[in-house]
Amino acid sequence: MKSLTTLIALAFGVSQVAALAIPRSMASGPVAEEAVPTYDKRSMASGPVAEEAVPTYDKRSMASGPVAEEAVPTYDKRSMASGPVAEEAVPTYDKRSMASGPVAEEAVPTYDKRSMASGPVAEEAVPTYDKRSMASGPVAEEAVPTYDKRSMASGPVAEEAVPTYDKRSMASGPVAEEAVPTYDRK
Q1: Distance CA 158, CA 160 (A)
Q2: Are the beta carbons of 89 and 72 closer than 8 angstroms?
Q3: How many CB atoms lie within 10 A of CB 79?
Q4: Of the candidates 67, 68, 73, 103, which has an alpha carbon nearest to the alpha carbon of residue 86?
Q5: What pLDDT digit, counting tens, does each position of 145-174 carry?
Q6: pLDDT for res 5
Q7: Span 13-18, average pLDDT
Q8: Selection from 87, 90, 134, 129 nearest residue 112 by Cα
Q9: Closest Cα partner for 151 from 162, 136, 138?
């Protein structure tokens, strides 16, 4: 009986040690909260843990919610950011071509891949929009002045592009009609 008691005591002790050895990445609730100081896999953290883990949060690209918002200052993979994080990440947002919504709009000033832009971003990007041939809608309309590939233009853009439309032979619809005066007819 005494040995049985000893075994039970040992088993209890082992269980306690095992509890302390639980991979913190799987922790939740109060345990996760206390585990923050040495929480090695914070990228999997959620709730209160993730929030407090921000200071040394190595994998912020996976962060979401409050953590992502506070992680912005040293957020290395902002291209994956979304929501509030993406918005604040604009200043040093390296992969703006993947941006969307509010981020894309603010990213225009240094938006390297505007050819992929759409919506409000594309509209504001016109001034330095290098690949206007891919433009559409409002962007295409404003891009006419320096629109290098007007032969691909259509709709309102094509109509306004007529004056300096180099490849009118490819024009169709309203463009072709207005282009007649200087239409080479080859």
Answers
A1: 6
A2: yes
A3: 16
A4: 103
A5: 444 444 444 444 444 444 444 444 444 444
A6: 59
A7: 41
A8: 129
A9: 162
pLDDT tens track for 76-109: 444 334 444 444 444 443 444 334 444 444 444 4
**Dihedral, CA of residue 160, residue 162, residue 166 and residue 168, to nearest 10:** 120
What are the residues whose beta carbons fall under 8 Å from the beta carbon of 153, sequence distance 6 or more? Answer: 140, 144, 147, 161, 165, 175
Contact 130, 116 (CB under 8 A): no
Q: Look up the pTM and report it.
A: 0.12
**Residue 26 identity:** M
Give the domain ranges of the chain.
Answer: 42-130, 132-186
User: Distance (Å, rounded) from C-alpha 63 to C-alpha 56?
Assistant: 12
| Token pair 């040394």 in the structure block, residue | 56
DSSP designation for 22: S
Closest CA to 135 of 118, 121, 111: 118
Nearest to 36 by CA among 58, 53, 55, 54: 53
